[in-house]
Specification:
Largest sheet: 2 strands, antiparallel
Helix content: 40-55%
Strand content: 5-15%
Shape: globular
Distance between the termini: 20 Å
Strand order of the largest sheet: 1-2
Number of domains: 1
Order of helices and strands: EEHHHHHHEEEEHHHHHH
Number of strands: 6
Structural class: mainly alpha
Length: 320
């Protein structure tokens, strides 16, 4: 029996797996797919929405939670379609940039820029309370986004040697887009939990706590992970055998984590959406305009495209 890629809603029939069309994503995610370089401007109106982090979590969960028995494919991950990597990039960039924007100080008006003339302690108590109210809400909202990140980090770094690839993929994007913001945060967040148990969706060590330094050390330790677990070469070969040309280069989680570690070492400013788009998105769909167009609308590869690829592959096997 043909085994479908991970995290793909499928219907198994005698002709193999067919991708079931998911409901369309919220407009924000659809716009982000079509214009990833504009993610900052797209998320600003939603930056302080209490529901936004939770809504984003529901989509990220599909890419960080294992849905089959680990080890079923041996030491190699199953083939994953283009939209899997593209959605990981979009979701990770939205989450990371939201946190980074909340950590970016807003330039004060010129009349308040001279702190010697307008020290905070000498402001009227009512004004100080209003300023603190804004600051307090910033911290609270950052915590909401941070709670979503911790679910990714726990599954990528503290849940065994074979996590869902999407968790490490998104971890790399998060470090590139908000690693510096996490480092310089005046109120460094703490994470809680380790050892996520995939078959009943619970955390085995819920009381285990870790902070930024432990998270940084865990990411640095990814340099010791085995390489080549993602079977990108076979994915490229499968697509090249069809009439649809595959992109020239794909970014698997190993390369993303390499760049994430370097970003943390240099501790420079975080990457912006245009930089993320130029580095990753512009290469991801290169040579596959049809796949890009479909993905921007639905986020998945159409059934016809997958069926054509499968039929041609079976035809080649039959001839041999």
């Amino acid at each position: 029996m043909n085994v479908p890629p991970l995290n793909s809603p499928v219907v198994i029939d005698t002709n193999g797996p067919n991708y079931a069309i998911k409901p369309l994503s919220p407009p924000l995610l659809q716009f982000a797919r079509a214009q990833p370089s504009r993610i900052d401007s797209l998320i600003r109106p939603h930056l302080y929405s209490h529901h936004f982090p939770r809504e984003l979590e529901t989509y990220i969960t599909d890419y960080v939670s294992i849905v089959i028995t680990p080890g079923l494919y041996g030491d190699e991950a199953p083939h994953r379609p283009l939209w899997y990597y593209a959605n990981c990039l979009v979701h990770g960039a939205i989450l990371g940039r939201a946190y980074s924007l909340l950590c970016t100080p807003v330039r004060p008006p010129k009349s308040l820029s001279n702190l010697s003339d307008f020290p905070f302690s000498k402001l009227p108590a009512e004004l100080r309370l209003q300023i603190y109210g804004y600051y307090k809400e910033d911290i609270a909202q950052r915590k909401r986004f941070w709670d979503v990140m911790t679910l990714v980090f726990i599954k990528a770094l503290w849940s065994g040697r074979d996590p869902e690839e999407g968790s490490r993929y998104i971890t790399g994007i998060l470090m590139l887009t908000c690693g510096h913001a996490l480092t310089s945060d005046s109120a460094p967040p703490r994470g809680r939990g380790a050892r996520w148990i995939w078959w009943d969706d619970r955390i085995a060590e819920p009381e285990y706590t870790w902070g930024w330094q432990e998270l940084r050390d865990a990411i640095m330790a990814t340099s010791r992970l085995p390489r080549g677990n993602t079977d990108i070469k076979e994915l490229r070969k499968r697509w090249e055998e069809t009439r649809h040309e595959l992109f020239e280069h794909n970014w698997n989680h190993e390369e993303l984590l390499d760049m994430a570690r370097e970003h943390l070492r240099t501790d420079e400013r975080d990457w912006t959406p245009p930089e993320i788009a130029a580095k990753f998105f512009n290469h991801l769909f290169e040579g596959n305009e049809e796949g890009k167009r479909i993905w921007e609308i639905t986020g998945i590869v159409p059934q016809a495209l997958e069926r054509s690829s499968r039929e041609e592959s079976e035809s080649v096997e039959g001839d041999t």
